[in-house]
Amino acid sequence: MPGTVLLLAASPVGKGCLVDAASVLPVLAAVSPAVLSGTDTANVVELADPLEPQAVLTRLRAAATAPGPLTVFMTGQLQLDRRQRLPHLALARTTPATIRYTAFPWHWITEELRLRPPGTTTLFVDLHADAETWDHLTARPLTAGLSAALYGRIAPPPPRRTVAAPAYMRAVATILRSGWRPPLPQLHQQALTRVMGEDGRTDLVLTPGTPAVTPPQPPQPRPPMATAPTLPAQPPVAPADPHESISAAVQAGRHGEAAALAGQWEQQALRTYGPASEQVLHWMEVRADLAMFAGDAELSCRVWLAVASARLDAGQPSDAPSVESAVDRAHHQWGRIDDTARARELGPALADLRLRVPGRREGALDHVQQHLRQLQTQS
Hints:
Elements: E1 3-9, H1 25-29, H2 33-37, E2 42-48, H3 53-65, E3 70-80, E4 87-89, H4 99-102, E5 104-105, H5 106-113, E6 121-129, H6 131-139, E7 148-155, H7 167-176, H8 184-195, E8 203-206, E9 212-214, H9 242-251, H10 255-273, H11 278-293, H12 297-313, H13 321-334, H14 340-356, H15 364-376
Parallel strand pairs: 1-2, 1-3, 3-6, 6-7
Antiparallel strand pairs: 3-4, 4-5, 7-8, 8-9
Helix pairs in contact: 3-5, 7-8, 9-10, 10-11, 11-12, 12-13, 12-14, 13-14, 14-15
């Protein structure tokens, strides 16, 4: 089955730039798509210094829903937004004051990848962080969720008035240009060996499991974790993870079967943990995503609206990532509803939520109100 490769390099323009992220793209682009992906054939999508977070989200979402293995090579810099203290991938227009609106939230990555079949998704990242973000990440390790293997490094800020080079990603690309793709842990270790002790620096090394601060010395093989990380909102499962069965059903086009499985687990969570519990909300979110995959925008919108309302009613703040994400996804699916009457029916509920949750995209409420007026003039 063909694979998909996403090459993403992003960094701010001007004095806020910590790394020359795009400089590695020509080296990666010179590698055969099959070698980049580890499959016989692959589709390669390249994003160089994107301007808008929505453009990145669109490409990432398309890559995440494509069948077959997905490999993401990401180079750039991480910054924290001032309000929620969440890591973002800085884009071309990002400044410290506009991170919430011009940068790409890292948690969007885990959300888009969460329904992919286990073992089919790999991220290689070479990221730099400013001092504030570096301190934050040493205490709160970066992850890519349960479904994705994350390899790479996060480097501390370079000296003042210096723009760093993406040395780790360049090493990965150079190794792959040989035409042979080593096993991923070996590829990662070989790249680390080539950049170790760079300027006497200490990097955060990322491997599947828990990241750790690694001093500038020859990397040693890391022992396997005794247990794998689990989603906090996922109810206990036996004997196997239901997400695997659901993902397999989606990949095979059996959308009704996938929805039925998610519904069963939602009901079990309801009986075990009660309404509005994180376990129930998790399975509601899964059902909303499954409706999107099945092309049922109306159902997906309804479920996302219910999730957002439940989170707000439970006292979660309007700018919490899970709340913003639910409203944004409801908004997105609402715009895809073909039935005018159904869209008119759901419009007021979405507008009410947008008053409480304006989100990060300017003019979101205005868009809902304008589109609702247009719908009301249609027969």
